[in-house]
């Protein structure tokens, strides 16, 4: 017979690596766990210790709701429904709302973090600088959009997507008119193009205060990566610039109402020094961000995100620094011409001693799709004595990394 006095957690999972080992994150906490996982996420799960595991082709809300209702009938109302991925956070909150789940992230909070106009409205209302923006269902024409936002260029964005998916920079009225004609106005927004250096701030908030935080500067941009350029970032050294960024991020998170949870926030520093909020995710950063934080700080941001959402105390506690904390990462996208076959690649490690981890594509490997931040043509992690030294190493790696691809005839590309 099911012991309904032990907390029940329902987990939506896509991760097949160490960041999907929720049993490890629980650290002996007594509970019942039900996993709803994609096939690729199954290997990471504790199959012997789980109350139930369901392998699902789809983790969409409408597909999961009948199953979650059945689980609640068998085992009682879950204490929390948790989705780790950007694709599942809103689904988990909607399932929680439908079942009257007491814990986890509330739907109002998640919607502020998922909907770009909503998040900018909340941050702007707190007196913090955000790009001027317009919901496209409020825009009668391209000319009206340009007038409302103060001129060109402008950025057309999906309201809920991540990783620069569907993002377009438009520099003319005709270009904007064509772009608007190809999108669903209820699913997109348009905003002011803000020039400057782009940073990301990563960490965990507990009880409305920063529990752990770092700040990093991007090398190239997420939009560059979507267009075929490598992407990286470098952790900032302790000092005034880092403090200003983390304080700014903390104020943004307070405006959004985040008390407990992990976050990945992006901001732009304009040439005159002004910080402008860009966007934020209610989750750890992607690409090599979580790996670098485990390696340099000993903090598993996914474990902390899971525990914060469930109301469990953090695993990581502040301690004295051990060894160098300067670090960064670099990832190469799939080739622009798809399908593409890797015909040559050479490691940059002999020329860049700051590289401590690399993943190279296999000779002959065929890329049939654009891939993600975790899939591509080269992954590198760096550590060094200072941000300046790591930044120089990242640029050297881009200069010396030998990579050559060719079109793979006969293979079929896919999205």
TrEMBL record:
Keywords: ATP-binding, Ligase, Nucleotide-binding. Residues 120-310 form the ATP-grasp domain. It comes from Streptomyces qaidamensis. PROSITE patterns: ATP_GRASP (PS50975). InterPro entries: ATP-dep_AA_Ligase, ATP-grasp, ATP_grasp_subdomain_1. One of its GO terms (molecular function) is ligase activity. This is ATP-grasp domain-containing protein. The keyword Ligase applies. The keyword Ribosomal protein does not apply. SUPFAM superfamilies: Glutathione synthetase ATP-binding domain-like (SSF56059).
């Amino acid at each position: 017979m099911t012991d309904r006095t032990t907390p029940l957690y329902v987990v939506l999972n896509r991760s097949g690596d160490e960041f999907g080992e929720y049993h490890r994150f629980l650290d002996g906490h007594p509970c019942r766990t039900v996993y709803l996982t994609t096939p690729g996420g199954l290997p990471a799960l504790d199959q012997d210790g789980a109350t139930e595991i369901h392998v699902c082709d789809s983790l969409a809300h409408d597909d999961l709701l009948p199953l979650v209702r059945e689980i609640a009938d068998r085992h009682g109302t879950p204490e929390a429904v948790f989705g780790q991925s950007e694709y599942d956070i809103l689904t988990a909150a909607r399932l929680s709302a439908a079942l009257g789940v007491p814990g986890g992230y509330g739907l109002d909070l998640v919607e502020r973090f998922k909907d770009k106009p909503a998040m900018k409205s909340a941050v702007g209302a707190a007196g913090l600088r955000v790009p001027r923006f317009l919901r496209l269902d409020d825009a009668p024409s391209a000319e009206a959009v340009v007038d409302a936002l103060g001129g060109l260029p402008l950025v057309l964005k999906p309201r809920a997507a991540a990783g620069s998916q569907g993002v377009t920079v438009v520099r003319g009225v005709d270009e904007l008119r064509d772009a608007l004609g190809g999108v669903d106005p209820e699913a997109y927004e348009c905003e002011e193009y803000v020039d400057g250096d782009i940073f990301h701030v990563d960490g965990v908030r507990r009880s409305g205060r920063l529990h752990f935080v770092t700040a990093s500067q991007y090398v190239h941009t997420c939009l560059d990566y979507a267009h075929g350029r490598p992407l990286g970032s470098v952790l900032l050294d302790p000092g005034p610039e880092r403090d200003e960024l983390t304080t700014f991020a903390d104020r943004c998170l307070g405006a959004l109402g985040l008390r407990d949870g992990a976050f990945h926030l992006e901001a732009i520093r304009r040439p005159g020094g002004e910080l402008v909020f860009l966007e934020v995710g209610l989750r750890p950063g992607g690409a090599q961000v979580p790996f670098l934080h485990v390696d340099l700080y000993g903090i598993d941001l996914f474990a902390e995100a899971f525990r914060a959402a469930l109301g469990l105390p953090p695993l990581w506690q502040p301690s004295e620094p051990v060894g160098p904390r300067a670090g960064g990462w670099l990832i190469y996208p799939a080739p622009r011409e798809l399908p593409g076959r890797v015909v040559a690649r050479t490691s940059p490690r002999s020329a860049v001693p700051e590289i401590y981890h690399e993943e190279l594509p296999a000779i002959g490997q065929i890329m049939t799709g654009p891939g993600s931040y975790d899939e591509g043509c080269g992954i590198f992690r760096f550590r060094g004595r200072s941000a300046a030294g790591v930044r120089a190493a990242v640029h050297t790696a881009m200069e010396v990394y030998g990579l050559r691809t060719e079109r793979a005839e006969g293979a079929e590309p896919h999205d």
